[in-house]
Each structure stands twice: as C-alpha cells, then as structure tokens.
Amino acid sequence: MRLIKAFSTYCAVGVTALALTACGQSSSDNEQSADSADASESAQTWQFGLEEIEGSVQHQYAVEFKEMIEEKSGGDVTVELLPYGKWGSSYSALYDAIQGGSIQIGFGSGALGGTVPESQLLSLNFVTPEDERQAAEVLNSDAFLKSDAWQTSFKERGLVPLAELTEGYQVWTANKEIHTPEDIKNLGIRVMDNSLLRSTYRAYGASPITIAYGELYSALQQGQADGNIQPVFAHEEMGFYEVQDYMIFAKQSQFVATLMGNLDWWEGLSDEQRTMVNDVTKTLVDRGYEIQKKFNDERLETIKEGDIQIIELSDDERKAFREMSMPVRDVFVDEVGERGKAALDTLLAETEKVSGGSSDDSSASSESDAGGDDASADDESGSDSAMEDEESMESAESAN
C-alpha cells in the first residue's frame, strides 16, 4: 500500500515538473515570437521619388537623407530611392503616386502647379533673397515652410511640404548681350510651359515661346529660339551653351524643388519619427545649398572653357527687371487666390528681414492694375503646367 502511494506521489511530482518545464518552454517561445512580431511591425520602407536622374542635385540630397534617416531610426526605417524613370516618365505620375500613397515622399518643382497651384509662387521672380544660402534658409524657415497658408495649400491635396531644395539660379542664355529690359525686348526666349513664366517674360518685353525640351538644342542652333532659361547644370548637361553666345546671371529666381510627403503617411508616423524627419531636413538645408553650389560651380567651370561670355547684372540693372516683374505677383494672386497671397506676403516679409529691407517690396500686390498690364493672365492659364505631353518632355529637363 505504501509502495503504491509512494509511486503515485512520484508520478504526481513528475507530471508537475513536466508541466512546468513545458510552460517554461512555451513562454520563451512566445516571447521570441512577440519580439519578432514587434520588429516586423516597427520596420518600415519609405519610397522616395526623384524628378531627376542619379548623380543630380536631388539625388545627392536624397542619398544623404536616406543615410541620416536609416542611422537615426536604428535601422527601423529603410529609405528606397526612386530616381527619374523608376516611377514613370511624367511628373504627374510621380505627384499622383505621392498623393495616392504608393510613394511616400518625393520632389515636386515647376510642373507641380498643376497639382498644387499655390506652389507656382516659387516660379515668381525677385521674391527670395539674391544670396543663394539666404534663399535656402528663408524658404525652409518655420515662418514660411510651416505657415498655415503653405501647409494648407498642400494638405488640401493630400500632401505635406517637408522642405524646400534650392538647385541654383535660373540663368538666361542668348546670342546678344542683355543688360536692360530694352535688350530683351521681343527676344524669342524659350520657357517651360507655364502661364506664370510666360506672363513674367512678357512683362519684361520678351516673346516667350514653348519648345519641347528634347528639341531645344536644335531650335537654338537653327535660330527657332533666340534664348533659353535653365539652371546652370541643365545648360551644361544638355550643351545649350554650345549654341549660345552669352550667359546672363540676373539672379531673378532659383530653381526650387519642394520635398513633400503623402499626408496620410505623415500623420501615421509616430511623434518621434516626425521629429526625426524634421531634424534631418533642417540639417540638410545647409547641405542642400552646399550640394547644389558644388554641382553648379563645377559645371560653370566647364561652360567657361567654351566660347560663351558670362554677364552678371549689376544691382541697378537687376532693379529695372525687378520693377517690371511686380505686376506678375498680382497675376499669381488672381490665379490662386488669397491663400497664395498670404504665402507670398510671408515669403516677401522673410526675404526683407534677411536682406536688410533693400530687396523686394513686402507687399504681394503692386500698385498697378494687373488686368491691364502685359503681365495679365491669358486664356491658357491654369491647365498649362498639368499637360501630360509637355511634362514628359520637362521630366528630362529637371533630370539633367
């Protein structure tokens, strides 16, 4: 009887031990599974769409953005770069992808006006500081970038502006010297298919024309266009300087690309992740300037090896063009409304602060009636920058 009882006790202890061991193993396995699940849930891939090819200003900026985000996130975030051609061939395809969320972040520049009309503000002449570094700082200041007018303009279209990348001055080329508006009068100068740019150059007295980017070199060579407007890197990449006699720096505007994100994606990030992105983009304000400066300086040296002559307008010469550009601000406001005016007023106010009050007027509206000026909007305004065929041509323009 005692033997049976002892045996029963032994079995009970053994079963209990086995049960405890089994429970211990199950708990350990569950913890490992939970850790794996947490790691899987925290790991994210952000796709970053570029308007330009590898080796461009946008690409180098994006490379450094990627490196900093991946380091600061401890590997929880991977940034996948999609240079021009990886997402499609027209700007609208990229903008649509960001709006739809299939691409989380990306750049938008001149053609973005078809998606965010207020973004055409960045195409206006003489609204940012003449100094390139100051221009980058003003455009990325909280006063402008985080303003209700600028943020709401994008958010109403399912986007959020995260930073502004300046890519260098928009530079004129021609087969004649240009120092005054009289010199540019009736000049057949090629501009992007953008009604605001056409209004600007009509205000100067020129005759703006639109030519497909891929046909521009031969058009300049054959005299179908008298002049051209591009950032320095584009003049060099496409060889436009080879068929023009003069390159003119009026410092009237810079080529600016907005770094923007999908709004749902942005709002779905944790507070820590949004802070991380803001910290990275603030760091890249100076780096972005340095990247484009080096990029454009090197290409300008290549251009100078040719026969083209470089002209830099004096302050007085720039002032004449600036005064003639003022009515185009009214055209912009008429086209996009009061929110655009608010963004413009903020930009001008910030520009005046850093320029010591010596630059452009801080009021969005000129005293003249824009409706009666050569700068008035024509019937083709509104839809120009959204035209698919031209966007495909212009994709190469920003990519080179």
UniProtKB/TrEMBL annotation:
<protein>
    <submittedName>
        <fullName>TRAP dicarboxylate transporter, extracellular solute binding protein</fullName>
    </submittedName>
</protein>
<dbReference type="InterPro" id="IPR038404">
    <property type="entry name" value="TRAP_DctP_sf"/>
</dbReference>
<dbReference type="InterPro" id="IPR018389">
    <property type="entry name" value="DctP_fam"/>
</dbReference>
<comment type="similarity">
    <text>Belongs to the bacterial solute-binding protein 7 family.</text>
</comment>
<dbReference type="Pfam" id="PF03480">
    <property type="entry name" value="DctP"/>
</dbReference>
<feature type="region of interest" description="Disordered">
    <location>
        <begin position="350"/>
        <end position="400"/>
    </location>
</feature>
<feature type="compositionally biased region" description="Acidic residues">
    <location>
        <begin position="370"/>
        <end position="394"/>
    </location>
</feature>
<feature type="signal peptide">
    <location>
        <begin position="1"/>
        <end position="21"/>
    </location>
</feature>
<feature type="compositionally biased region" description="Low complexity">
    <location>
        <begin position="355"/>
        <end position="369"/>
    </location>
</feature>
<keyword id="KW-0732">Signal</keyword>
<keyword id="KW-0813">Transport</keyword>
